[in-house]
Design brief:
The chain contains nine helices and eight strands. The longest helix is centred in the middle third of the chain and has 16 residues.
C-alpha cells in the first residue's frame, strides 16, 4: 500500500527508520564507550564537553563527580540505552571524530537515499529529528556510502534544541523553528510514542516498520504505516 502525503517538509527519525538500530548498537555504541575516558580527560576545556559534564552531574545529583564517575554514569546509561542529552552530546563528539577520520561510515537502508533525493527534487524540505545529537546527525549524513547527504537537509533537531521526542511541544517547537505549518509536516518514525506526539502537534505521521527492528512486532498503533520509503509518495501542492 502506498501512502501519499501533500506536505512541505518531511522530518526523519534515524534509528529503525532511515538506518538499522543494530548498526548503532553494535558499531557506534562500543566505539563511543571505548573513547569516553579520553574525551573527558583530553577535552575537558571544550565548552560542549564541559556543558555535558555539568548536565551529568545535575542529572545524577552529584555536583562533585569527577571524570571517572562521569564515565561510569555514561556507560551505565549506554547499557540502559537511555536517551540522556549529555550522553548523546558526548557520543556525537566522538562519532564526529570517527567519521572525520574515516573510521566510521554510516548505514542507510537501500530504499532511503533514493527516496530522500526524490522528495528533495520534488521541492519538499527535509529535516532530521533524532535523540542523537546534532553533531552526530551531521557526521552521520556527511559520511555515507552514497556520499555527503547534508546538502539535502534543511535542518537538524535533537533533544537539546527541540526537546523530548515523545512530547507534542517538541514538535510544535520544530514547526515554529522551521517556519512551516504543522499540517504541512510529515514525521517518519518507528516508535509509536513519537508518532503520537507528532500527531498531537498537528503533524502528519507515518510509522516505519522494518523486519528485525525493535519496534517491528509492537507495531505503530493506529498510524498509517509503511515497510519502506518506497511506499511513501511526497508531493507539494501548487495551489
Amino acid at each position: 500500500m502506498t501512502y501519499h502525503c501533500d506536505v512541505d517538509a518531511v522530518v526523519l527519525d534515524i534509528e529503525g527508520t532511515t538506518s538499522a538500530t543494530g548498526f548503532v548498537v553494535d558499531v557506534l555504541y562500543p566505539y563511543s564507550r571505548s573513547r569516553f575516558g579520553a574525551l573527558l580527560s583530553e577535552r575537558s576545556g571544550d565548552p560542549d564537553v564541559a556543558r555535558a559534564v555539568a548536565q551529568v552531574r545535575e542529572l545524577t545529583g552529584d555536583p562533585e563527580a569527577d571524570a571517572t564517575a562521569v564515565e561510569k554514569t555514561l556507560n551505565t546509561w549506554l547499557d540502559e540505552d537511555r536517551k540522556a542529552t549529555p550522553l548523546k552530546t558526548l557520543q556525537g563528539l566522538i562519532w564526529a571524530e570517527g567519521f572525520a577520520r574515516g573510521e566510521l561510515v554510516s548505514h542507510f537502508y537501500d530504499d532511503v537515499v533514493p527516496a530522500l533525493r526524490a522528495w528533495h527534487a520534488a521541492g519538499a524540505r527535509l529535516y532530521v529529528y533524532s535523540s542523537g545529537s546534532v553533531a552526530a546527525q551531521r557526521a552521520w549524513f556527511s559520511a555515507t556510502p552514497q556520499g555527503d547527504l547534508l546538502p539535502l537537509l534543511s535542518g537538524l533537531y535533537d533533544t537539546e534544541n527541540a526537546g523530548p521526542k515523545q512530547e507534542a511541544e517538541s514538535y510544535r517547537r520544530i514547526a515554529e523553528s522551521a517556519g512551516i505549518a504543522p499540517d504541512r509536516l510529515l514525521f517518519l518514525s518507528d516508535r509509536p510514542g513519537e508518532l503520537d506526539a507528532a500527531r498531537a502537534a498537528g503533524w502528519h505521521a507515518v510509522g516505519i516498520r522494518r523486519p528485525g527492528e525493535p519496534y517491528h512486532e509492537q507495531g505503530v498503533g493506529d498510524h498509517a504505516q509503511a515497510g519502506t520509503f518506497d511506499e511513501i509518495t511526497v508531493s507539494r501542492s501548487t495551489t
